Amino acid sequence: MEYSNFNDTLLSFLQSSPTPFHATASMRSALVAKGFVELLEEDNWVLDEGGKYFVTRNESSLIAFTTPQLDINQTGWRMIGAHTDSPCLKLKPNAQVDRFGYHQLGVEVYGGVLLHTWLDRDLSIAGRITLKTTDGNIVSRLVDFKDPIAVVPNLAIHLNRTANEGFSVNPQEEILPILCGAENEFDLHELLKAQLKAQYADLSIEKILDFELSLYDTQPAALVGLHKEYICSARLDNLLSCFVGLQALLNPKDDQITARPSLLVCTDHEEIGSLSACGANGPFLEDVLRRITPNPEQYVQAMQRSMLVSADNAHALHPNYAAKHDKNHAPAINKGAVIKVNANQRYATNSETASIYRDIAAEEGYDVQCFVVRSDMACGSTIGPITSGEIGVPTIDIGLPTFGMHSIRELAGSRDAYGLYKVLARFTQRETLMTR
């Protein structure tokens, strides 16, 4: 993919992916368009040499892979990993709240949300609804209201004179979005039924059984800055990496399928620890890999000839908060992807995996930066150490420099994502990783 099209496609992907369910659906559509065949976990798998396949779990996690040859124990995998979820506000099961003349929604905080950034934003609702049809079937459908239908107004400074000195947001009482005034009749299930009927004209609904719905900011993703050098959007952490990994799989260097088996894994629930059936700390990836290489000895051989690039965002040095960084490990936006290192294995990078990545980046002519958190600050983590610990694959943690991580709207470089795509596209074709 050329640079001229890359960011336009990225912006469209971000806009069409307000939830992990929608992100997975967007990636599924892109894979099908490129000739990838969908596998179902409940079916028997028959894989062909030279095949292209993908499988989903929970509609929110996806694994896609190529099999240019099937002796994977001799070749190993070239893996790219990311996660589909982002911090957000999720509707509670009994979400309808009526108080003081307003219809509101009860919400639960998902992940490490920067709560104050959700104030005064034009919010919509998207996610998955499970329902019973009039013919007795239980089915799930994705919905996206798209229009701004909710808002969490701030409190006027006249009523909170110390607001600019710093304030907290109570997630039980102060983050409930307003939908409409109490003079309007409102029933949440009827609203959801109407949205389902608008999106699925042929769907015959007996009743809604349950839902997994999130609020999201309707402001579109955009290129910003005097020279359009920044990407500003919700959910850059970590849909940015999902998109880059997908493009590396779909559009490898020289537009040819790699001579080495390549794999993309994008899992849900990273922001809350990854421990779920479809998370990185669950069995999804290992289940898929063992079905491809069922022989236990060959499976171990394959893992030791493989490498995983765990791609997540990295903290760029913020010019207004420079003291928050170790000055020797302070990445800049649009200066290249970041190798993330932590002595306590919060990141899975080691000297060998870092060296392999540096060598590939040099071949493509892209700079590499390095991030280590200040020694007096706590370090976050990624799917890298989890996946490496689960399946024993050598792993590197990398990320694109970002401002405002976990804000409702984050900022990254418009050149960094394309550079990472070029490096990962070469990685998927890398014949030799290390010489032993």
TrEMBL record:
Enzyme Commission code(s) on record: 3.4.11.-
Q: Which GO terms describe its biological process?
A: proteolysis
What cofactor(s) does the depicted protein rely on? Zn(2+)
Q: Which UniProt keywords apply?
A: Aminopeptidase, Hydrolase, Metal-binding, Metalloprotease, Protease, Zinc
Superkingdom of the source species: Bacteria
Transmembrane segment boundaries: none
| Region forming the signal peptide | none
Matching CDD domains: M18_DAP
Spell out the molecular function terms from Gene Ontology.
aminopeptidase activity; metallopeptidase activity; zinc ion binding
- GO CC annotations, alphabetized: cytoplasm
- What family is reported? Belongs to the peptidase M18 family.
Indicate what this protein is called per its UniProt record. M18 family aminopeptidase
Organism of this sequence: Marinomonas ushuaiensis DSM 15871
